[in-house]
Amino acid sequence: MADSAAIATVVSTIAFAASAIAVAVQLRQAARERYFAITAHLFEIRQSPEFQHDQLFLLHKLPCATWNEFCALGRGEQPERALHRVGGYYDRIGNLVRHNLIHKDDILPTIGGYAIAVWDRIQPLVKELRLCGSATNMNPETYPTFGNGMSQADRELAVGDLAIPDTDGISRRISEFSAGGRLVLIYARGQTCPFCLRQLADYGERYGEFKRSGTEVVTVVPEKVRAARRLRTGLKLPLTVLCDESRGAARVLGLLGRERNPNDPTPATVVLDGSGRVQLFAFNEGVKCLFARDVLEYVRDSRNASPQPPTPQLLAPKPGPLFARALFNMAASVFRI
Shortest CA distance to 279 belongs to which of 301, 308, 249? Predict the structure, then answer.
C-alpha cells in the first residue's frame, strides 16, 4: 500500500513537472510569435514608400526651424504629415524598447542612425511644441471639446493631439493613424454591449478591405487596458484598440453628457481624412450604428467625389451569439470574475 502511494506521488510529481514545462514552452513560443509580429509590423511601416518619402523630406527638405514657421507652411500639409508619421514611428519604437517588448540590440543597429538624424532635424520643433502645449491641451483633463464653441480647425487639432494607450499600454496619438490616409475611428461602449461587439466584429471582418482602400480603422473603448485586451483577443480583431479609461477622448469628441449616467460616453463613428479633418461624425445611439460596409462605401466614394457622398444610415446590427458574450462580460465586471 505504501509502495502504491509512493508510486502515485512520483507519477503526479512527474505529471505536474511535465505540465509546467509544457506551459513554459507555450508561453515562450507565444512571446516569440508576438515579438516577430511586432518587429515585422515595424519593418513593414519603415519600408513603405510613404514613410521613406516623409523621412527623406525631414532629413533633407524641412525648410524651417521654429514652430511658427512650421505652422505657416500649412496645417495638414506635407511637413506636418511627415512630422507625425516619422516622429510617431520612432516614438513608438522607444516605448516598445522601454517596455521590453522588443530588444534594443535587435532594432537600434538598423534604425538608430536614422532616428538620431531625424531627431536632430525636428528637435527644435518638438521642444517648442512641448513648451507651447504643456499648459494647454496636452493633458486629457483640459482638452477642449466639440461642444464648447471651438472652431472646426481647433477641434480637429485637438483630436489629432489625443494620446491614448493601446492594449499593450503604449500611448498612441490619433494623428499617428490618420497621417497615412483616411481614418475611421469607432468609439464603442465596450465588451458589455452586444451591439458594439457586433459592430466591432463587422469592422474586423472588413479590415482588409479598409486597408486596401487606403483607410485605417481604430476603435476606442472606455475600458482599462486589460479589459480592452480581452475584447480584442476575444473578437480576434486585427485593428488597434485604444483604452479611454480616463474618458479624455470622449470629452474631446463631445460624447459625454448624453446618457443617463453622465460619465458614460455615447458611441460614435468619426471619419478623418489624411490631414486630420473630420469628414463624417455620427452618434451610434441606442442599438443603431453605422455598418462597416456602408462606411467603407462612403470612404471609397468620398475619395474622388464632389460634393461629399451622403451620410450612411444608422442600422441595428444583430448581436447573435455575441449577446451571450456581452452578458457574461457584464456579469464578470459586476462580480469581478
Answer: 308
Highest mean pLDDT (candidates 9-13, 186-190, 193-197): 186-190
Residue 180: closest CA among 278, 281, 111, 276: 276
Q: Which of 189-193, 258-262, 314-318, 325-329 has the lowest mean pLDDT?
A: 325-329
Is the CB of residue 205 less than 8 Å from the CB of residue 238? no
- Level-2 CATH architecture, domain 151-335: 3-Layer(aba) Sandwich (3.40)
* Cβ-contact 194, 185 below 8 angstroms: no
Q: What is the pLDDT of residues 282-298, one digit of tens each?
A: 888 767 888 899 999 98
**CB hemisphere CA count around 171 (13 angstroms):** 11
Q: What are the start and end residues of each CATH 3.40.30.10 domain in the chain?
A: 151-335
Q: Rounded to whole angstroms, how far apart are CA atoms 91 and 264?
A: 31
CA separation for the pair 288, 186 (Å, rounded): 13
- For residue 218, CA distances in Å to 94, 203, 268, 278 come to 22, 9, 12, 15
Instruction: Identify whether the C-beta of residue 170 lies closer than 8 Å to the C-beta of residue 206.
Output: no
User: Which residues touch 104 (CB under 8 Å, ≥6 apart)?
Assistant: 97
* pTM of the predicted model as reported, rounded to 2 decimal places: 0.57
Q: What is the dihedral of CA 255, 261, 264, 267, to 10 degrees?
A: -60
